[in-house]
TrEMBL record:
Annotated source species: Chitinophaga varians
Record-linked SUPFAM superfamilies: Radical SAM enzymes (SSF102114)
KW Metal-binding (keyword) present: yes
Cofactor field: [4Fe-4S] cluster
GO MF term set: 4 iron, 4 sulfur cluster binding; [formate-C-acetyltransferase]-activating enzyme activity; metal ion binding; ribonucleoside-diphosphate reductase activity, thioredoxin disulfide as acceptor
Pfam families registered for this protein in UniProt: Fer4_12
Protein name according to UniProt: Radical SAM protein
UniProt entry keywords in alphabetical sequence: 4Fe-4S, Iron, Iron-sulfur, Metal-binding, S-adenosyl-L-methionine
Domain of life: Bacteria
InterPro entries from the UniProt entry: Aldolase_TIM (IPR013785), NrdG (IPR012837), Organic_radical-activating (IPR034457), rSAM (IPR007197), rSAM_sf (IPR058240)
Amino acid sequence: MEQLYINAFIPVTAAEGPGLRACLWVQGCSVRCEDCMVPHTWDKNKGKATDPSTLLQILAETPDIEGLTVLGGEPMDQAAALLPFLQAVKASGLSLMFFSGYTKEAILESGCPHKAAIIALCDIFVDGPYLKALTSFERPWVGSSNQRIFFQTARYQHLENKLHTIKNKVEVRIGEDGTIAINGMMPKEKFLELRHSLKNIQ
C-alpha cells in the first residue's frame, strides 16, 4: 500500500462518531477553512509518513471498536493512498465515517475514481467546509450548519433523526512523557481556554 501522511491516529475514542472508534487524522489540507481549529494539519510536509498496513494491524488488535473515523486535514487530498486502506478496513467488518471539506457534489464532479470510491464505502459521509459565519454546535461532530451528514447505509440510519439527542464529547489524553492531546468537538474559544488551562498545570 502507498504511504499515508498522517497527523495522528487514536486506536480507541468515543468522541469522533458513534460508538467506540479508531480515528485517523491525515496531514495536509487544500481547503484551509478560516479560523480552523487544527491549522497544524495543513502542511503535508509536517506529517508522519505511515504504512497503512501498520494501521490495519493496530485495528485488528484493538478490541471493542466498531469503526474508523477519518478526518484531517483534508482526507480527499490523499484519496489514492487512502482507498486501498479503507477498502481493507471495510472488509474487516468495521464501519467507516469520513469527513471532507469539499461538498459531495464537487468531489463526484471532479471525476476522480478514487474519491468516488471512497464516498461509496462510507457508512457516514460528512461534507462541506467549516464556515465561521455559520458556526453551530447544535449537531454532533460538525462545527457549522452548512456541513451535511449523510447516512449512506443502514448501519447508522437510526441516528439520522436523533442527532439533536447526541452530545459532543471531548477527550484529553496525557502521554507517559507528559504530552497532552485534546480531541473532540467544541467551540474554538473553549478549546483554547482548555488548552491554556492544561498548559498551566504541566
